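Teaching assistant's notes for section 4

Start the section by putting this record on the projector. Ask students to predict, before seeing the second block, whether N-acetyltransferase domain-containing protein will look compact or extended. Collect guesses on the board.
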Amino acid sequence: MISDLGDSDLAGCAALYAETFSAPPWNESWSVPDAVQRLADLLATPRAYGVSIFDGELLGFALGNLERVGAEDHFCLREMCVRPGRRREGLGTALLDGLAARLPGVRQWYLLTARDSGAAAFYERNGFRPAQRIGVFVRP
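Reveal the predicted structure now:
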């Protein structure tokens, strides 16, 4: 069942986040306390929206925020993950649909993800496309 994400969900979401992004293909170094801090910061962002899906346990969540661009609101999907072993069951699509239902009228969404990844293919199957005019620049 899709439900709104709140502060009471942080511990479970942080554990899932650390498990997910510390494993392949991401192999990032996440502790649960660090994940709690990241997700708490994102939830505290003005106009943040998040959803989770439970079926006896937390199966996944998605979180982002609205940003004003000219006369429109755009949605930045900041984090999303689905429990390993439960991927490719439609849960990620259900999370995106749950967010979309809470964001009527928002036509433009964007996110950052690794190119040529399973995540990129998932987002493309769900209507996203690579940006043509925007690049991401990093500074060490």
